[in-house]
Amino acid sequence: MDIDLLTNILYMMIMTGTPLLLVALGEMVCEKSGVLNLGQEGMMLMGAVAGFIAMYHTDSYVLGFIFAMLVGVLMSLLFAVITLQLNANQVAAGLALTIFGTGLSAFLGTDYEGKQIPVLPSLSVSQLQDIPLIGKALFAQNAIVYLSWLLVVLAYLFFRYHRQGLSIRAVGEDPAVASNLGLPVMTIRYLCVAFGGAMAGLAGAYLSIAYTPMWTEGMVSGKGWIALTLVVFASWRIERIVLGAYLFGFASIMHLVAQGLNWDISSNLLAMMPYVATLVVLVMLSRDKQKLKLFEPMSLGKPWHRSN
C-alpha cells in the first residue's frame, strides 16, 4: 500500500472521528453524573445549522462555533428542566429532543441549503507535517481537532485527580448519598448536561464549518447515535472513547479507502460500515451485561429529588 495513501487515511480518520470524539466526550460527562441524554443527534443538527448561519453572516469562525455551542447548551438545558425538574422520563425526553432538533434545524436551514462558506483552515507546522506517515495526521489539522485533544487531556486529568471530578462520579453512583455528604446534586447534573450540549453543538458546527463547509438537511447522518453507542463501548473511560471515535472514523471513510485501492466494491455498501459497526458493538455489549454493569454509573437514567 502506498505511503501517501496511508498518510491520507490517517489524516481523514482523525478528521472524521473528531465530531464523534467531541459529542461522545460530552455525553460521557453527562452520563457520569447519572443523566442519560439521547438527544445528541438533535443537538448536533441544531449546532450545525446555528454555527453555519452565524459563520455565513459574520465571516467569523469563532462566532460560528460559539453560537453553535450556545444553542447546544440551550437545547440541553431544555432537556434538563424537563427531566431533572419535572421528573420526566429521560429516554422519552431525549428522543423528543432529537425529533425536535431534527425538525427545527431543517426549518431554520431551508434558506441556507447548498450555500457554501470558506473551509476552516488548518494549523499546519511546516517542518513537522512532512514527517512520513504521521506528519500530516498530527501536525496539519484544524483548530477544532487540536481543541478536541486538549479537552480529552483536561477531562482525563479532571476525573482522575480533581475533587470536582470525583464529585460528579459520586453523584452518578448514588445521588442520595452524595446529597447527604453536602454535594449540590442538581447543580452538578445541570452543569454536566450543559457541557454535553455544548460539545454536541460544537461537533455539529465542526461538520458544517470545518468538515463539509455547507449546510445540508440531516447532515449529521446518525453520528449522534453512534456517539451514544461509543460511550457504552468505551465503558465510560476517556482513553477508550478516543480509540473508539477514530475506529468509527476509519469505518466512515472505508469507501474512500476502497477507491484508493481500486476495490471492486459498491461505495454504498462501504458507506454502511459505521452503522454495521455500531450494530456489531451493540450485540457484543449485550452478551456481557454483568461486565457492563461494573462500569455503568449506578444511577444512570434514574430520576432523583432531594425530597426522596
TrEMBL record:
Where is it located? Cell inner membrane
Q: Where does the protein principally reside?
A: membrane
This protein's membrane topology, according to the annotation, is: Multi-pass membrane protein
Give the stretches traversing the membrane.
6-26, 38-56, 62-84, 91-110, 138-159, 190-212, 218-236, 243-261, 267-285
Origin: domain of life = Bacteria
User: What SUPFAM superfamilies does the entry give?
Assistant: ABC transporter involved in vitamin B12 uptake, BtuC
Keyword line:
Cell membrane, Membrane, Transmembrane, Transmembrane helix
InterPro entries named among the record's database cross-references: ABC_BtuC-like, ABC_transp_permease
Among the Pfam families in the record, one is: BPD_transp_2
Name of the featured protein: ABC transporter permease
